[in-house]
Task: inverse folding
């Protein structure tokens, strides 16, 4: 990224270790879309205040498109926005309506049924003493087990999450499965494991993983 900020109207507010931010980064890297990276540290008062001035909800990622004077929050919406206004060779949301519907469904699957329970398990580890939620964690683990089983059956006959093309759904799947495997390994789900290996070999996600490396100490064990 050697272009100046003036030639890069897109500003991405994010953190390299956050799964939903990684989801968006994959989309940027797949189509080599230039952007100005603005890393947000919510634990730093100055960084948080600067981000809240842009997006008071203070949840990332958030995209700012200076050229269109648009603020775009939420990972899925950002990827759809990029696909619409900054397209590249990889079509992340299919033009065909039925295929697009399948892609969006798979995207929601990974966000709600893999990322969400994974995050429940992780955040429970950093709760104050006496505030743990073992029942909630077990519910989250049960949901992950169900999601693994469903995904294992789906991936028996296809290469990527929504078929034979890499899409928005795979952008969602890669970080979701990366962290989920840390908290609850895939174990006997061989098709999930094979799919995950394909994701890890994808250059866009390999880059995301490498860039997140310095922050791995943030992950609670």
Result:
């Amino acid at each position: 990224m050697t272009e100046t900020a003036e030639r890069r109207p897109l500003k991405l507010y994010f953190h390299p270790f956050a799964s939903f931010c990684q989801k968006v980064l994959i989309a940027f890297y797949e189509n080599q879309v230039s952007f100005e990276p603005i890393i947000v540290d919510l634990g730093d008062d100055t960084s948080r205040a600067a981000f809240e001035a842009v997006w008071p909800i203070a949840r990332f990622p958030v995209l700012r498109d200076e050229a269109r004077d648009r603020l775009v929050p939420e990972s899925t919406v950002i990827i759809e926005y990029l696909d619409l206004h900054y397209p590249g060779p990889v079509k992340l949301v299919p033009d065909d309506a039925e295929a697009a519907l399948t892609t969006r469904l798979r995207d929601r699957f990974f966000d709600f049924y893999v990322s969400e329970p994974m995050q429940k398990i992780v955040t429970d580890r950093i709760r104050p003493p006496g505030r743990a939620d073992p029942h909630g964690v077990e519910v989250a683990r049960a949901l992950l087990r169900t999601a693994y089983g469903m995904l294992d059956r789906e991936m028996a006959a296809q290469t990527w999450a929504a078929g034979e093309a890499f899409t928005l759904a795979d952008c969602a799947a890669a970080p979701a499965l990366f962290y989920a495997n840390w908290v609850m390994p895939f174990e006997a789900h061989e098709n999930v494991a094979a799919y995950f290996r394909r994701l890890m070999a994808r250059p866009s996600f390999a880059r995301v993983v490498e860039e997140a490396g310095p922050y791995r100490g943030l992950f609670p064990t």
